[in-house]
Amino acid sequence: MKKLFSIAVILLAFVVQSYAQNAYYLFEEGAELTIANTDAKGKHTGYSTLTVKEVTGSRSNCTVKYESMVYDKKMTPMLASPVIQEFTVRNDVVTFDPQSMAGQLMAGMQVSVEGTPFSLPSSAKVGDTFPDYNIVMNIAGMKTTSSVTGQQVVAVETLDVDGRSIECVVVEQTTSTKVLGMNQSGRQKTWYGKGYGSVKMETYNAKGKLVSGNILVGVKGM
Asked: 62: Cβ–Cβ under 8 A, 6 or more apart, which residues?
């Protein structure tokens, strides 16, 4: 159950971030990103990889197929096989189906979205705000609900990652998650880079203390 819960939390975070796409998604065929999960002290506690397997069409109108894998801190896979996911882009609008990804992880898992999922336009600037939405997951009877509110672009910053400089827009939001009857709330700050997606994320508790995060640590094929 502990492993199931860990995978559910990782997947939920991945789904939430994956909606923030448009110009901010990984597009280049053959590219691979390695993301490190971190604790409050910045220590790596696990990893995930995202690899683009196939791209059909142009950036504004295309289908992208990629695979992802989740690892523990020793780089031991937590899933039996990589998760294959596909999304489409039509006139710069991304359609991402978390249900198809969830179905590969575990039979009986259900994912639904209530409201308008977050979509970050290429023209995003400081001060822009975005609608609230909810993501509901049901895994073997374990219901997880995440509410995302108060989304706003608060800054533009450049991060140095694996020998390259990536200009990012910084988005802050409030996230409230309910898992197994337990409620957790806090703030998230995410750095989005064009052509990369989420480059860095920090999660703070209700008291404003940094509790966890993740950061892009490796880039191949681009």
From this structure: 27, 55, 56, 88, 89
